[in-house]
Specification:
single chain; 13 helices; six-stranded antiparallel beta sheet; alpha+beta
């Protein structure tokens, strides 16, 4: 472990990369995405979120939409908005958001290792979202958005990637509209590529950090293509998926917040009495959780501090000791009757990048109560994955996000 594969990346011409590179398909709704492409016909959102090419009444999961995404991708290639590297390469991808910076490697990740548990998962997927991405990959015959992987930091990998970056000019160096900087180096030197592969073979495992639906979709497409290919060898491009792996000690997680539409028929007084059984509750002027086991809550125009009491969670259990589990098992489920959060329309989720002000906004619009959580750490994620368990839904929010369209991998 780990076998990683270089590939012939399909990339924007340097002068167009800032126009092409787009946010991931799943961090914007259709309206937000459509607004972004109005003045930018080169946006890769036209590929990864192809409903933006139609009127608002289009079904985003219709066959017509997937075919349009494929048509736009092929048009970008035909018009040389995108060009393909002539030989297989690796790609070093560095992202900087404020004072935080992380440097990773982009490659084809082995679906055999994914299937055998050497690329470890920590979340269940939602069937509808998995269906969407699997069909998208199949129709476009390409990985259009990278999966973010993590691994235990390795000195040899860090040093070698650092040497390459220090000794060569980056192919792209762009700062997106959100202020996040994305820098890419193309690694085509055979000696560098051989050393990279050797260093990654020393890793015991990698972990899916962000992109469970994309990796699951790639696995489903591989299975379908393998079944149809009577000459399957295991070396075909469809046996790998597009990934960027970062050392865990460089990755940054933010809290993943919850908002709820109602108090499950309880008066505010009864609701507060019930949550006081498992939390120390007090009013606060600081809406940001300070440490693990500490939550904040917004209700009726006020912020409250919620500190989990001893005994409200089993110490040592990698899943039940997570903050997200503590909130669910001691408040959302027994007090607000929220048991199936994947399908229950009474609850919604907000990435920590939007801040606690977004919780106030939502409560003033269409929600009743909101909760901010301390971030789940990379070490917690790895511990859960190593134990073979899964986290509750919406446990981790990674920032900064990888951009789509900087490198595409064809199948």
């Amino acid at each position: 472990m780990s076998y990683i594969q270089p590939f012939k990346g399909i990339r924007p011409r340097p002068e167009l990369v800032r126009k092409v590179a787009s946010p991931p398909y799943d961090v914007l709704n259709s309206r937000e995405a459509k607004d972004l492409v109005k003045q930018n016909p080169h946006s890769y959102l036209r590929v990864v979120k192809a409903e933006v090419n139609f009127d608002f009444d289009i079904n985003a999961h219709s066959e017509e939409v997937y075919r349009k995404g494929a048509e736009v991708l092929q048009g970008f290639i035909r018009d040389e908005v995108l060009i393909q590297d002539p030989s297989p390469c690796f790609y070093i991808y560095e992202i900087t958001m404020g004072s935080h910076s992380q440097r990773g490697l982009m490659f084809g990740a082995s679906l055999d290792e994914y299937e055998n548990g050497l690329i470890k998962k920590h979340e269940f997927t939602m069937r509808e979202k998995e269906d969407d991405r699997a069909h998208h990959v199949a129709v476009l015959n390409a990985n259009t958005g990278p999966v973010m992987l993590s691994y235990h930091a390795d000195k040899d990998i860090d040093e070698h990637l650092g040497i390459i970056c220090a000794s060569t000019e980056p192919t792209y160096d762009l700062t997106a509209d959100d202020g996040i900087k994305h820098v890419l180096w193309v690694v085509s030197n055979p000696e560098d590529m051989e050393r990279i592969q050797k260093n990654f073979r020393n890793l015991e495992a990698m972990y899916v950090a962000d992109g469970h639906h994309r990796s699951a979709a790639a696995f489903r497409v591989r299975s379908a293509k393998r079944e149809k290919n009577s000459s399957h060898t295991g070396d075909e491009l469809y046996n790998y998926f597009l990934a960027v792996a970062f050392p865990g000690n460089q990755q940054q997680t933010l809290g993943y917040f919850r908002t709820v539409k109602d108090l499950a028929g309880l008066s505010p007084e009864k609701f507060m009495n019930k949550i006081s059984l498992n939390f120390e509750v007090s009013e606060t002027t600081d809406p940001t959780p300070e440490k693990p086991r500490h939550f904040t809550m917004y209700l009726d125009g006020k912020w409250y501090s919620l500190l989990a009491k001893e005994g409200s969670f089993p110490a040592g259990d990698p899943v039940l000791s997570l903050d997200v589990s503590i909130l669910h098992k001691n408040l959302l489920e027994p007090v607000l009757n929220l048991f199936d959060i994947r399908t229950n329309d009474r609850i919604d989720f907000i990435g920590g990048i939007r801040g606690t002000g977004e919780l106030e906004k939502r409560c003033n619009e269409d929600m009743r109560v909101a909760f901010a959580l301390y971030p789940t750490s990379i070490n917690e994620l790895m511990t859960v994955a190593d134990s073979g368990e899964v986290m509750p839904a919406k446990s981790t929010w990674f920032e900064p996000k990888l951009r789509s369209g900087i490198v595409t991998r064809s199948l």
